[in-house]
Amino acid sequence: MTKHSTNPWLVLVLICVAQFMVVLDGTIVNVALPSIQKDLGLSEANLQWIINAYTLVFGGFLLLGGRAGDLLGRKRLFLIGLVIFTSASLLNGLATSSGMLIGLRALQGLGAALISPAALSIISTTFAEGKERAKALGVWAAIAIGGSAVGLVLGGWLTQSFSWPWIFFVNVPVGIAAFFAALRFVPESKDEHAHRSYDLGGAVTVTGGLMALVYAIVKAETKGWGATTTIGFFVLAVVLLVSFVLIELRSAEPLVRLSIFRTRSLTTANIAMFLVGSGMFAMFFFNTLYIQKVLLYHPLKAGIAFLPFTAGIMISAGIASTLAPRIGVRPVAAAGMIMTVLGMLLFARMPVGGSYLTDVLPGMVLASLGMGAVFMPLTLVATTGLEDEDQGLASGLFNTSQQIGGALGLAILSTIAAGRTHGGSAAQLVHGFHYAFAGAACFVAAALVVMLAMLRKRHVARIESASSAEPVMLNV
Q: What per-residue confidence (pLDDT) applies to 267?
């Protein structure tokens, strides 16, 4: 353990409190979506921007946040992220229009993109490699899973007992307390030998390009695919994303060193996670709408209804960590993807007059068990067998692939669902949801095809030998 004037376990508690707030925000908003839609008058197609504005900026600036922490100081960036996230949370709760809320959700995503990589780096620099760091990362992973579960229930309770703005107000006292505690107790650290350069251009172009792409997809449903607005935003997306690639090729300190994709295992894991994320985000989104708008569950009951999903992921991730060293990461991931696809297909047959126990829970259990079995092997494939200096980039890429894939998948499937929904009746909504769930199943099936086509036993031989020699730590 490294030596600090402050007890490192106190540092861990403070860092985990902030990360808990960020993770909480990932699920607490989902349960409040119908209430937000009703109060602010959002259409079915535009409702997904409440999620995607946050997700796209979070994913787009995640790698820059990690890099900036190394150069500016991890504690300093952590504090800056807390200020941005907490301030945006307060303003979100005060939002009076959909445009205001969506813009502030993007600002909140920026704060999260600074907090998360800085927090993980602080843990890595506070605890020495070995048993102590493994124990600290175990706590970190538990906080991530627990935060998701608490977010579902807390979001439902706050929305039902008070109103949806309180899902944002709850972050304010936590953020303020975490800021002053971190200011007093968290040690500063930075990479003194790193070149002092930032790939801000890369972060801006990739985030802007992805947001333009999502906007074009969403507008295509109302404006038409051949409309000038739609084509214009598609062209803008292509220009920005091509600019991103050119910037990365020419930058001395690129946000993403493109040569890392020559590693077959890493490339395969990121493509697969991109596709899995595309299906997973949509599954949460449309299940939330089905449970509250069709089954007419109140927000708290809807939050509790999602708890089996969190439990399923925890159980299957533990089982997968035991099985992967014995039978291989590819069979475990493939089995998880197949279960997830079957769960999505069960959702795609949910009727208008359905019930939670017979029409929602079976698919939820199957999909959650599948998801847990997918995350652990793909995390290993994406991060094992690389040089030490590439570990941070590999972890950041993997998390970014999940976030960006989720945002684009949600945009595509929301547009498809809205295009099949004409009117606001429950039957029409469910008809659109069927297409969305079927599309989500297609995304996960595509991930399975990519993994089987690209990944051979020789590509994971080093991974499987390493995972069988030491305990697996799941990076949630």
A: 92
Type of residue numbered 106: A
| Whether 176 contacts 315, CB under 8 Å | no
Q: Read off the amino acid at residue 407.
A: A
84 HSE (CA, 13 A, CB side): 23
Check whether 71 has a pLDDT greater than 60.
yes
Q: What pLDDT score was predicted for residue 333?
A: 93
Phi-psi region at 423: left, alpha or beta (left = phi > 0; alpha = psi -120 to 50): left
Q: How many CA atoms lie within 13 A of 430 on its CB side?
A: 19
CB atoms within 10 A of CB 193: 6
Helix axes 307-327, 329-347, angle to 10 degrees: 150
What per-residue confidence (pLDDT) applies to 37? 92
Q: Which residue has the tokens 């605890």?
A: 127
Distance of alpha carbon 358 from alpha carbon 350, whole angstroms: 9
Are 71 and 191 in contact by the 8 Å Cβ rule? The answer is yes
- Average pLDDT value for residue range 37-57: 87
Tell me: the pLDDT tens digits for 210-249? 888 988 887 787 778 888 988 999 999 999 999 999 999 9
Amino acid at 387: E
Distance, in Å, from the CA atom of 247 to the CA atom of 209, rounded to the nearest integer, reads 13
